[in-house]
Amino acid sequence: xxTSTPTKSARKKVNFMxxxxxxxxxxxxxxxxxxxxxxxxxxxxxIARYKMKKAFEGMDKLRKKxxxxxxxxxxxxxxxxxxx
Length: 84
Description:
mainly alpha
């Protein structure tokens, strides 16, 4: 089993559907040689936002389950206490 992670520069062609209006805007505003990089960056940013949203939702569930009254900032500060 190969457990190595592909580098960011490793690319693979994929096939998926997008709204026609998005494709028109992509073709109008993003030059042909820059589209893959643009889409990769957009997906990376979207995944990062999604992961953060899910993390905050998880923290909210824990707050409710255990009746925690700390803010997110206070929880992060406590988690990182002593890590200089």
